[in-house]
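Researcher: We're teaching a course module on how sequence relates to structure. For the next exercise, students receive a sequence and then see the predicted structure as tokens, so they can try to spot secondary structure elements on their own. Here is the exercise chain.
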Amino acid sequence: MGGELAIAEQIKSDVATAMKAGDRERVGALRLVLSELQKAEKDGDADEQAVLRRERKRRRESETAYRDAGRADLAAAEAYEAGVIESYLPAELGDAELDALVARAIEETGASGPRDMSRAIKHVMAAAGGRADGRKVSTKVKEALH
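Model: And here is the predicted structure for the students to work with:
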């Protein structure tokens, strides 16, 4: 848990830097993220990366909804916040790396069909260490097992 607290501390430092620079949009985005991290910690969720991934996903979904509704201004604000959040997350795995993890998971778990999907997905997610989107992993495992 000691290493995980580094994200919240980094964000606090970045809020101060953004305030000094007069970057109000960044300050607002960082404060929202910090608030979510503090709320999660209070609720006993110490996995800061999971909180950040969840918040990034919410922003991306809102961005899409706003774009579909013709509200480019609100979509841009959500996209900006998602980008800020993303800067605190490790880079996502590329397709080749993910394909290799899926192949290894299928081999190591002995997965051979749709019934074994969840076991293989759990294996890939653990191996990816938070650097892969669950939906993408699910799709890749499904393709590999069919």
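Model: If you want an answer key for the exercise: Residues 95-145 form a domain with the Arc Repressor Mutant, subunit A fold (CATH 1.10.10). DSSP finds seven helices and no strands in the chain.
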